[in-house]
Amino acid sequence: MIKKTVAAIGAALLIGSAAFPAASAEERTVLDESIYDTLVDRFYNGATENDQGANATDNYGFNGGDFAGLQEKLTYIQDMGFTAVSIGPIFETATYDGSAVLSYGTIEDRFGTDRELKDMLSAYHEADMKVFADFPLGGVSPDHEWAAGQNGWAVPSENGETIDWDLGNQDVQDALIDAAVSFAEKTGVDGIRLTNFGDADTAFLDRMIAELKETSPELMVFSSAPSEADFDMSDNPDIMEALRSAFVEMDPDSSGINQLELTEPPSMLAFDDLNTDRFTTGMVERNMFPPTRWKVAATALFTLPGVPVMTYGTEIAVTGKEAPGTHPLHNFKTDEELKEHIADVNSIRNQSDALRTGDFKLLHNEGGLIAYKRWNRDETWVIIVNNTSETQRVDLTEEEIGEGKKLRALFDSNLVSQADSGEYRLVLDRETADLFIVEEDTGLNIPYIIAAILVYTTFVGFIYMVWRKGKQRAQDEKAVKPKA
């Protein structure tokens, strides 16, 4: 706890006057968000009365997670610095993941009542967090209420177990748009992810997006697949593959990072999602140590340009090749050091406009040694990722950093000044990453002095509390000791 408090103090002081509190939910743009992606049934069981025979050990069945569980564990998600949670499809469904929709007009009662959904949403909104839900446009249950009543609307899906809608049919398009708009109005969710739309016509998707936003202008609409439609975030599988290749092991081919840039709309950044194998699996297969791998990867995830999306259970290094193995019921046996690191980097991102929305430039990228700059007119950061098996040095030029600056590391407390030859020499141990705030080299380092005093005061206070409790214990024992 002391370590986390000191880290938070130090982070705020390092950013100094350039730091601003994260914008409120109403003011945030898509680039201000960081998303924790989960499924209602697989997160936490907060109300047993809606279990309906749920079995937490059945990988294929319902495990009991619900809206009440999401509300109860709100602080758990918020403590990691996430500003939004994505909860998957929540319609009446034949499967735990919500994809086999039975009715777009009804919420799955295993997940909770309409009242419990509204209570959960209200709790997240009061905590200044957003809630996103999925709207499947295909891959629904053959028993969907539309399947029997509307001839010609349904077409067989590739897997033979679900059905798709004929998205070229005008009546189907109108019905889906009406259902999506009704869902947004009824629930008050902050965002909708459209899924399973195959090769649907872009004009249809754009019409759905437009009508959703007409209902709620602040509603975020995004997708689970690449599309030319006017989504608020772009989904690019090449970016996920680039991130996976660059961080799955030491000394990797990190050349894919060269493609990362600021885009409009911004790209989603993720190492895995609910439809892929878990990224940790690749680490394990290569005999890597997942917590160390993830600390390096998470530093990049929350500082590269785009919108970071982290799949639930990453903080406990969940593995798995395919669903349902990739969708375990969250056990919350968290690696505290990894969870705190995610919280630290994510929280710094929340405080820094430059790390969320600032310019980006890749300064160096070779064999897992990556350096890049994020900046705006108020602040400049340099991020160094040493994803190699040896200690490495990166020399940055005066042209990139400026003259007479100093670079202060966020995690290692290292201070780098300009060398006589003009460059800035940054050294990092193997398998580590750090953020450096660029400051004016004015001599006395007031933020550092204040941070040192606060750290010392915190430590002395801790020692004093331990001594005082020990003294009180001794007095209590003396008081109850029988007289000879």
Automatic annotation (TrEMBL):
Pfam families: Alpha-amylase, Alpha-amylase_C_2
Secretion signal span: 1-25
Keywords, in A-Z order: Membrane, Metal-binding, Signal, Transmembrane, Transmembrane helix
Needed cofactors: Ca(2+)
SMART domains: Aamy
The keyword Metal-binding is assigned to this record: yes
Residues annotated as transmembrane: 446-467
Residue span, Glycosyl hydrolase family 13 catalytic domain: 37-349
Name by which UniProt lists this protein: Alpha-amlyase
Record organism: Bhargavaea beijingensis
